[in-house]
């Protein structure tokens, strides 16, 4: 199950109490204080894991605490610190601290690297034992400190997939078929809308050195930025991409209008997406007869503004026609400097 959002509560472990103890040695009837300090409470730590791709572990369990530390002991023995609690999350997970009413306070971190480690909630400090309070005027103190409670935080986890290329289009445009033919991904494919119900990552290999990752985003419809259809759930997954592929069925009516709707939905969701480089990919050219195919493709290109025509490429995800050209064009764009 793909889960890209969760809210949890984390709390550091409580520190151990200091110990009140005095030496009891032969021939030393009134030994001095030797109570040890309490140990430190365990932290709650988040670690990035490249082998994960969902926040499913945090869908049902919502509370995570560091372990409580042991109390100090006599003979100046410090209590054992509490074990840390480790939370593993997929790369691309953003973590926000929340108020108790659920509003965001601050962004704590953005986990982008494998084994990247961040302390979310520190364990409480251990209390001092009575030996720490001995003075020349008070050589037998009975004062000790209790261990402190650990930090407590409410957190929001938001997963945004890390991919080089984002594949967007209306439902049934052929996105799943395309990604299954150019990458190692195997999404569900069927001839009806909203076949894809969750984002899918695929690795595209041009040659030994050149590889890029493409994300298939579930179908967007007009009004997706307002919550219509499925798009609003997954638009965030294209925020990290460097290149956008607008996949449009070449047999559709008013292709220019369809491109404008897709572009506008991304703009209304985040104006930052306007700065992404893009290609317009006309799919399903296998449905056109050979004698009209090239004429129709050229006619469609001419309807686009001059500065956009060079970004139009026609393919067939089913037969594989022009897929090599598409992959090479994407790789060239990724290699360009901004």
- Per DSSP, the total helix count is 6
Enumerate the strands of the largest sheet in spatial order, edge to edge or round the barrel. Answer: 10-11-9-12-13-14
Q: Examine the coordinates and then state which fold CATH places here, giving the name of the CATH topology of the largest domain.
A: Rossmann fold
> N-to-C terminal Cα separation, in Å?
37 Å
Rg calc: 30 Å
Which secondary-structure class do the elements indicate?
alpha/beta
Please give the share of residues in helix. Answer: 10-25%
Quaternary arrangement of the chains shown?
single chain
Q: The biggest beta sheet, please?
A: 6 strands, mixed
Question: What's the overall geometry?
Answer: rod-shaped
What portion of residues belong to β-strands?
A: 15-25%
The CATH class of the largest domain is identified as: Alpha Beta
Task: Give a description of the structure.
The structure is a single chain. Helices cover 17% and strands 25% of the residues. It has 338 residues and is an alpha/beta fold. The protein has 2 domains: 5-159, Spo0b-associated Gtp-binding Protein, Chain: A (Distorted Sandwich); 165-335, 3-Layer(aba) Sandwich (Rossmann fold). The strands form 3 sheets. The protein has a 6-stranded mixed β-sheet with strand order 10-11-9-12-13-14, with helices on both faces. Strands 3-1-8-5-6 form a 5-stranded mixed β-sheet, with no helix packed on it. Strands 4-2-7 form a 3-stranded mixed β-sheet, with no helix packed on it. A hairpin with a 5-residue loop joins strand 10 (200-205) and strand 11. The longest helix has 15 residues, at 255-269. The chain is rod-shaped. It starts with a strand and ends with a helix. Residues 187-196 have low confidence and may be disordered.
């Amino acid at each position: 199950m793909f889960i890209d959002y969760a809210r949890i509560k984390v709390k550091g472990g409580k520190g151990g109490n200091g110990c009140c103890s005095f030496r009891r040695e032969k021939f030393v009837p009134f030994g001095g204080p030797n109570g040890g300090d309490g140990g430190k409470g365990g932290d709650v730590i988040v670690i990035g894991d490249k082998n994960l791709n969902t926040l499913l572990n945090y869908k049902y369990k919502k509370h995570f605490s560091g372990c409580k530390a042991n109390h100090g002991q006599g003979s100046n023995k410090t209590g054992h610190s509490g074990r840390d609690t480790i939370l593993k999350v997929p790369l691309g997970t953003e973590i926000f601290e929340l108020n108790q009413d659920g509003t965001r306070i601050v962004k704590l971190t953005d986990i982008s690297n494998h084994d990247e480690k961040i302390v979310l909630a520190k364990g409480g400090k251990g209390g001092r034992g009575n030996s720490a309070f001995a003075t020349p005027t008070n050589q037998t103190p009975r004062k000790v400190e209790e261990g402190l409670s650990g930090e407590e935080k409410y957190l929001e986890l938001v997963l945004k997939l890390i991919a080089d290329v984002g594949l967007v289009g209306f439902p049934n445009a052929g996105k799943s078929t395309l990604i299954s033919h150019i990458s190692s991904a195997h999404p569900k494919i069927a001839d009806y809308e909203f076949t894809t119900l969750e984002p899918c990552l695929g690795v595209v290999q041009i040659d030994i050195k050149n590889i890029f990752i493409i994300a298939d985003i579930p179908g967007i419809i007009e009004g997706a930025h307002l919550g219509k259809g499925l798009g609003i759930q997954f638009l965030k997954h294209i925020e990290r991409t460097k290149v956008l592929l607008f996949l449009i069925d070449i047999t559709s009516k008013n292709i220019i209008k369809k491109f404008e709707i897709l572009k506008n939905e991304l703009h209304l969701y985040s104006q930052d997406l306007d700065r992404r480089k893009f290609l317009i990919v006309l799919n399903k050219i296998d449905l056109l007869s050979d004698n009209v195919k090239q004429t129709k493709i050229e006619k469609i290109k001419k309807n686009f503004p001059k500065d956009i025509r060079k970004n139009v490429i026609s393919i067939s995800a089913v037969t594989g026609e022009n897929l090599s050209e598409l992959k090479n064009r994407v790789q060239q764009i990724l290699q360009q400097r901004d």
